[in-house]
Design a protein that fits this description.
This protein is an alpha/beta fold. It contains 6 helices and 9 strands; from the N terminus they run H-E-H-E-H-E-E-H-E-E-H-E-H-E-E.
Length: about 200
């Protein structure tokens, strides 16, 4: 049941370096689309003073997350919840931060819309929404590898694809979130941090 994604091993340290800068000092971190569970275990171990709540819409992913959780026995890593980002309601009413890795491009646009809607609902003022993945960014040259990646995604599912960061940012603003920073990451990826507006 325990699954393994090589990419999670490669990107976890660069993502961790950003999380150390932007996560609140304590509280609950909601991870949307936790996948295999490797990130959940790694980050829960790195942040013992935070509670890490993994989620995924896929039952087999939740089985993998739980297998990793049982093996590690971390007291601050909660059992995975069933959460569909595009759903109008989530099984979590509040969180101090949200992390979402490699979901927006491997899902329909409705998942991004739902993520922003849910983040606007559950985050406190100033709470961060941290996204990681590939993006097209206006005014910046696009790496050939990202163009090829986008084509391969759309071939697998026409509703998938590398997203325009401008469109993602507009969707975030519609739900009370402002873009805080864009961090260049290895392999032409980015970590994008939004924060819930006060008031």
């Amino acid at each position: 049941m325990k699954r393994h994604a090589p990419s999670a091993e490669r990107n976890r340290e660069p993502i961790l370096s950003v999380l150390r800068e932007v996560l609140p000092p304590r509280g609950t971190v909601l991870e949307v689309a936790s996948g295999t569970g490797q990130h959940a275990v790694f980050f829960a171990r790195a942040f013992p003073e935070r509670v890490w709540q993994p989620t995924d819409a896929d039952p087999s992913a939740r089985e993998s997350i739980e297998a990793w959780r049982q093996e590690e026995g971390l007291p601050n890593l909660r059992p995975p919840l069933a959460l569909d980002a595009s759903a109008s309601t989530w099984p979590v009413e509040s969180a101090d931060a949200i992390v979402c890795i490699n979901m927006i491009h491997i899902s329909p646009w409705e998942a991004c819309q739902g993520l922003m809607r849910g983040a606007g609902r559950v985050l406190p003022p100033g709470g961060p929404l941290v996204l990681y993945g590939a993006y097209f960014i206006e005014g910046r040259p696009t790496a050939p590898s990202n163009l090829a990646f986008d084509a391969s995604l759309r071939e697998r599912d026409p509703t998938w694809g590398v997203r325009e960061l401008g469109a993602v940012t507009e969707e975030a603003r519609a739900h009370g979130l402002e873009r805080d920073r864009v961090v260049d990451m290895p392999n032409n990826n980015f970590t994008v941090v939004f924060r819930k507006r006060a008031g």
